[in-house]
Design brief:
Radius of gyration: 15 Å
Structural class: alpha+beta
Shape: elongated
Number of helices: 6
Strand content: 5-15%
Helix content: 25-40%
Number of strands: 5
Distance between the termini: 21 Å
Order of helices and strands: HHHEEHEEEHH
Number of domains: 1
Largest sheet: 3 strands, antiparallel
Strand order of the largest sheet: 2-1-3
Length: 124
């Protein structure tokens, strides 16, 4: 599988988790509150908060991640807030150097069908 920056996986794929605990800890260590503010997680009291409000110790205890959320409103975001459209059918990840493990390891179960779908519905 070779990424050709069509954006389809980021625009339409809905995995179970966009980020993992390892991502949260890496982003915390990198000082990436700009990313963590978009990640909804259960806080110490069980209420949903954004990961940027938690300590590293709190993040180590995270078992589930709700997904991308809009800072300030808590509204679910889809697609990923870090996907940027470059041109008609070309997208780029603005956090590519530190993107989540889910994104790094993304492989669609049937890549050929995925590409055929993209070519049929998203070609110029």
């Amino acid at each position: 599988m070779t990424c050709d920056q069509c954006g389809l996986c980021c625009l339409y794929y809905r995995g179970t988790s966009w980020a993992r605990k390892e991502d949260l800890l890496r982003w915390y260590d990198e000082g990436r509150k700009d990313i963590l503010q978009y990640v909804a997680v259960p806080g110490p009291d069980g209420r949903e908060v954004t990961a940027d409000t938690l300590s590293r110790g709190d993040l180590e205890g995270i078992e589930s991640i709700s997904g991308w959320t809009e800072p300030g409103t808590g509204r679910d975001l889809h697609p990923c807030p870090f996907l940027e459209k470059e041109s008609t059918n070309l997208y780029r990840c603005t956090i590519h150097a530190t993107k989540s493990l889910t994104c790094r390891k993304f492989v669609h179960e049937d890549w050929e069908m995925f590409i055929a779908y993209r070519d049929r519905f998203f070609s110029p």
